[in-house]
Amino acid sequence: MSRDSATAAATSNAASQNVQAVQVARLYYVQGLTTDAIASELGLSRPKVSRLLSHARRSGLVEIRIHDPEGQAQTLEAQLHARYPFLRAQVVSVPQASAEELWLERVAAAAALGELLRPGMTVGLAWGNTMSAVGQALTPRPVPDLTFVQLNGSANAADFMSGFVTDTILRFARNFTAGAQLFPVPTFFDDSSTKAAMWRERSVRHVLELQERAELLIYSVGSHTASTPSYVYSAGYLDTHDLDSLSAQEAVGDIATVFYRADGTDAGLSLNARASGPPLAMIRQAADSLCVVSGLGKVAALHAALAGGLMRRLIVDEVTARAVLELGCRAKN
Questions:
Q1: Are residues 164 and 49 in the same domain?
Q2: Which tens digit of pLDDT belongs to each residue from 40-80?
Q3: Neighbour-count burial of 200, counting CB atoms closer than 10 A to its CB (0-12 exposed, 13-18 middle, 19+ buried)
């Protein structure tokens, strides 16, 4: 056989092998057949099928890509830290095209709190849908001499002490065999002078001093645009006049029912003078703070809170984290 004939024969054999390797690869990777089933269907031996699969991978006929959700989450964590150097972020992976309810479940489960809680600590705790989900996902673990103190009042015109709120605070306390200091005052006072007078009462001062001494604050950000609106918006704590006022004054979110604008500032927001939650200055100056957030409806509120330096730690799902970073890019341009 001449050299040209031998070359032509080798080329033909290689092309035939490639065609057969692609056929085998389609059955294996696309249709999900086993090597035994492929061997039976094509009249090949099982070792031959294995060799063809190996050839398909080596020759580039098949490319295997692994999309590591943890890798994506770590990239988002690094991007958040680069944009907000003060922040320690944990981004939680969620399945593609999954519902926001699942995102919240994953984020709540990630907020285990074990590494943050120490014996003798006082922990300030806000309330709301996210904190309720976190409380339900906790793993019981006693922490000696731990105390949870409620950060904002829970009474409104229809319910002096909301069972939803007290259940949340007490669930945290029971989980860690800890003490609980409730805060039985209105979420929003009708008159700021009434709040000022009550803030001088010794029983109220005791709670306020516990809040100020807290080594750790735990909360979410509130938003009326979330798919499940924050509890303060959905449970009748705010009337139409209040909501109109917040809109007119360009509030985008709240922490413990204290409202802020898109830049994280709160000066001039009139409802805050009647709010029972802690001043945002206390949030910024806390020794440590953890914000737990999930859902695209909270993107604007979270972005504003980050702009205002209103947290030191963040646990967030990857979809919301990506949207916050994209919003930050658009705001710069």
A1: no
A2: 989 999 999 999 999 998 888 887 655 555 578 999 999 99
A3: exposed
Same domain for 83 and 13, yes or no, is no
Q: What is the CATH classification number for the domain harbouring 46? A: 1.10.10.10
Q: 142-169 burial string, b = 16+ CB within 10 Å, else e?
A: ebeebbbbbbbbbbbeeeeebeebbebb
Q: What token pair was written down for 182? A: 């409730």
How far apart, in whole angstroms, are the C-alpha atoms of residue 21 and residue 38? 11
Mean residue pLDDT of the chain comes to 89
Amino acid at 103: W
> Whole-prediction pTM value?
0.77
64: in domain? no
The answer on pLDDT for 231 being more than 80 is no
Pick the closest to residue 325 from 87, 71, 67, 69 (CA basis): 87
Distance CA 254, CA 7 (A): 75
Cα distance between residue 4 and residue 102, in whole Å: 64
Counted domains in the chain: 2
Percent above pLDDT 90 for the chain: 68
Q: CA dist 23 to 2, 10, 83, 179, Å?
A: 32, 20, 48, 66
- Run of H or E including 292: strand 289-293
Long-range pairs, 191-195, Cβ under 8 A, ≥24: 191/274, 192/273, 192/274, 195/273, 195/274, 195/276
Which of 42, 9, 36 has its CA nearest to residue 23?
A: 42
For 86, what's the count of Cα atoms within 13 Å in the CB-facing half-sphere?
Answer: 15
Give 125-135 pLDDT, tens digit per residue. Answer: 999 899 999 99
Q: Say what percent of the chain tops pLDDT 70.
A: 89
We report the CATH number of the domain holding residue 82 as 3.40.50.1360
Q: Identify the CA nearest to 127 among candidates 3, 255, 250, 1.
A: 255
**Residue where a domain terminates, one of 58, 78, 99:** 58
Strand partners of residue 91: 316
Domain encompassing residue 106 = 69-332
